[in-house]
Design goal:
The complex is a heterodimer of chains A (374) and B (398). Chain A is α+β, with helices and mostly antiparallel strands and 374 residues long. Helices cover 51% and strands 16% of the residues of chain A. In chain A, α4 packs antiparallel against α6 (209-244). Classes of the chains: A alpha+beta (374), B alpha+beta (398).
Chain lengths: 374, 398
């Protein structure tokens, strides 16, 4: 999908800003969702041929930043960024009806990809899809399903009899599906799915591994954009605190050590903006080196979000560790965002493998003569 | 293609890459890639090659003989040339005093000094720091007293890089003592052959002589060598320092070269009879550095795209770039040392001034160690990292 022009984007940004600034973070999701649908925001990321307005990763990132700043529970990531994209890319125009329902706010779908014994390695999936007389059925277990409590249906990744990766649509009330939710560290709820012969519909034809991989890349860039929104708020609130809080007869902002710490936060914020923008552009332009841009985005954002959120607490002092002050909630939200779709350590491990593959041969070429001290 | 560049810049990059592959002399490339000392003749030779192609003055305006490159094109050029092993262009004439002269100088000064900068026949050095005025530059004490049509200048400058090669020095001197230390400073152009100028070498910790102390003992400088107004030198100095900070963007290309050196080293250094490049643990460290390099390039791009938005943003951006460019560069240099450590860090200073005609592993290690040692200065010159943070804190109103 092509990125929006600047006027349209500005218009959407205004709508998004309004919805999230007036809604309370704890507000019911249905209300926010209806407002977003009414403002046309849910049509963002949906193709024009399915009653959407299109838009690129940077446009979705704009929404994600607002969600991050507002600590909003709106399941935009699951439904629009991941599911709508997967449905559109696997089903094409066959998926028009479902996509129109997304745009109208009538349907919410979450991705169920990770499994309890596979860690972040989704490709090690043991969930299986098999054909029965009545249609495909799923068997297996999924966990770490974001926005599970708000979902009407799930996109479940599974292997078929040929060992290919498939994406299966399962209604929340499908026979054979058991959904349970548990609370995560940031207060959001994540789902566990137990599939015992759950009836499903397979999306698209053939192996979907590449599409799933790309959907996860987009999801990672989107959570980084959400993290950026949260970090911007932490930084702004910390700046305000430094300028008003007094100690030893001066404002905190007059202490050089605190100035420097704050500048370090600002640098981290700028780095995050830079990697998020670069990764969004890489997703939209189908950059040949999209993998580097996405891994670097998640790894750097992991580093910067830890730093900014920890220093946000540190510079607020005692009040920073309270549940009442919003800084601690941003801190936990950022933990959750980093953990989603592979944390920094996981992405570094994967990217290290890419580097070894990419350069390993270069490095050993012409090295028949080893360096040794003579 | 980079997201902030268009197809036109992409083809310019390819052009620069091809030009460097063909025209960069092998001995100069070797010296840069190995990290051994570049002589004045090497620098001038490469500058003249670039000038022939019209790229030496690329970022100068067309009416001054340049190409009028915007900052993105300048970055693309520096990135490609530096990564290809081209020397860093000495900034003193090209990027510092040249732009000061065509922005603030008289026509006579331009006619007299710009040709020598354009064709690399005049070497310039920068007389800014003093023993008691480093980061606190405005505290400078070198005195210039008006005497008819001249100033008589007495004082001492330090960290005057390549003063021993220089024909001319642009110099900040104090012409009066005012309320604020930034007032009463004057910008003078001093002929290094003037009586009373003496240059004393400083050997830095890499055991190389590149920088100097310059003593000025009652040096007579004609008034026509004053740039701009008397007492307003700080304005021109600040204009120049802004250029100094943005010139750090060459580091992005330098870092690509350093990562290449690191990979090459990993293929050559053994651990347990195996090259380190076969160890996944090495690649994890390496990947983290490549992520930092990618992040830095994206950061530079962001500042370039936003350049000129407003002065505050530009000031903040330049300081942030200087901080991160130097930090990432030093981290990669440290990773190189980490690999060489098991060989006992051999450092053969007798080969630092080699002719660059041959390459061998021992020379490479000496050169890389030199890079690590000389790199320590990067977080100090051009305003220390701590000063950069002060600048940002002030700019955002803390």
């Amino acid at each position: 999908m092509t990125p929006l022009d600047i006027e349209t984007r500005t218009m959407f940004a205004a709508t998004v800003g309004r919805v999230f600034s007036t809604s309370d973070a704890g507000a019911n999701v249905d209300g926010i969702w209806a407002e977003l649908a009414e403002g046309g925001v849910l049509a963002l990321g949906i193709p024009e041929w399915a009653d959407g307005v299109g838009g690129g990763m940077a446009d979705l990132g704009m929404v994600m930043r607002s969600i991050g700043a507002a600590l909003s529970p709106a399941p935009y990531l699951s439904t629009v960024v991941i599911s709508a994209w997967l449905v559109a890319s696997l089903e094409g125009r066959r998926g028009k009806e479902g996509l129109s329902a997304f745009a109208a706010g009538k349907r919410r779908i979450s991705l169920a990809h990770y499994e309890p014994d596979a860690g972040y390695s989704g490709s090690a999936s043991r969930t299986a899809v098999a054909e029965r007389g009545s249609g495909p059925v799923l068997n297996g277990r999924k966990h770490f399903v974001l926005d599970a409590e708000h979902a009407d249906a799930f996109l479940v990744t599974a292997r078929d009899a040929a060992g290919l990766t498939r994406v299966c649509l399962v209604d929340r009330h499908a026979p054979g599906l058991e959904v349970s939710v548990e609370q995560a560290v940031d207060g959001t709820r994540i789902g566990r799915l137990t599939l015992r012969g759950a009836t499903a519909k397979i999306l698209g034809d053939g192996d979907a591994a590449g599409r799933v991989e790309e959907a996860l890349e987009r999801a990672n860039v989107a959570v980084c954009a959400e993290a950026l929104g949260a970090m911007e708020e932490i930084t702004e609130k910390t700046r305000e605190y430094l300028r008003t809080r007094r100690a030893f007869g001066r404002t905190l902002s007059q202490f050089q050590v605190l100035q420097h710490r704050f500048v370090d936060m600002l640098i981290a914020l700028e780095e995050t903006r830079a990697v998020v923008e670069a990764a969004e552009a890489a997703c939209d332009h189908k950059d040949a080196d999209r993998a580097t841009a996405v891994h670097a985005c998640k790894i750097t954002t992991g580093r910067t979000s830890r730093f900014v959120s920890a220093q946000g607490i540190q510079l607020h002092g005692g009040v920073g560790v309270t549940d009442e002050l919003i800084i601690s909630r941003y801190y936990k939200r950022l933990m959750m965002l980093e953990a989603s779709f592979g944390n920094s350590a996981h992405h570094l491990r994967v990217f290290a493998g890419i580097c070894q593959q990419r350069y390993g041969d270069d490095a050993t070429d012409g090295s028949a003569v080893r360096i040794q001290r003579s | 293609m980079r997201h902030w560049e268009d197809e036109d810049l992409g083809s310019f990059r390819r052009e620069v890459r091809a030009f460097c592959a063909e025209k960069l002399p092998q001995d100069i490339r070797n010296k840069v890639e190995l990290g051994i000392v570049l002589e004045k003749e090497d620098q001038v030779r490469w500058q003249k090659i670039l000038h022939q192609r019209g790229w030496f003055l690329g970022h100068w305006p067309r009416e001054q003989g340049g190409q009028g490159w915007d900052v993105r094109r300048r970055f693309a050029f520096l990135d490609e040339a530096t990564a290809a092993g081209a020397p860093r262009l000495s900034p003193f004439g090209l990027s510092y005093v040249g732009p000061v002269l065509y922005t603030f100088g008289t026509k006579d000064q331009c006619d007299r000094y710009l040709p020598g900068i354009r064709n690399s026949d005049t070497w310039w050095c920068q007389g800014y720091s003093e023993p008691n005025a480093g980061s606190d530059l405005a505290n400078l004490k070198t005195r210039a007293v008006r005497d008819g049509d001249s100033y008589r200048v007495t004082g001492q400058k330090i960290w005057t890089t390549t003063a021993h090669w220089a024909d001319m020095m642009f110099c900040l001197v104090r012409t009066s003592v005012e309320e604020r230390p930034q007032q009463g400073i004057t910008f003078l152009l001093i002929d290094m052959k003037s009586p009373g100028v003496s240059v004393r070498p400083i050997t830095t910790m890499d055991m190389v002589h590149e920088t100097n102390e310059v003593f000025l003992d009652d040096v007579v400088v004609p008034v026509e060598n004053r740039v701009g107004e008397e007492g307003k030198g700080w304005t021109y100095a600040k204009f120049l320092l802004d250029n100094e900070r943005i010139s750090m963007i060459y580091v992005v290309g330098r870092i690509k070269l350093m990562l290449r050196q690191l990979r090459e080293l990993a293929g050559k250094v053994d651990e347990g009879q195996q090259p380190i490049s076969s160890d996944p643990y090495f690649w994890r460290d390496y990947a983290a550095l490549e992520v930092d390099a990618h992040t830095l390039e994206a950061l530079v791009a962001r500042q370039l795209v936003d350049a000129g938005v407003d002065d505050v943003q530009r000031t903040i951006g330049a300081s942030i770039l200087k901080l991160r460019c130097t930090e990432v560069m030093l981290a990669i240099a440290q990773a190189q040392v980490d690999l060489m450590a098991r060989l006992g860090l051999p450092y053969d200073t007798s080969r630092l001034h080699g002719d660059g005609l041959s390459r061998d592993d021992a020379l490479m290690m000496t050169g890389l160690l030199r890079g690590h040692l000389s790199g320590r200065a990067a977080t100090i010159y051009g305003g220390t990292s701590e000063i950069q943070k002060n600048i940002v804190a002030k700019a955002i109103g803390l």
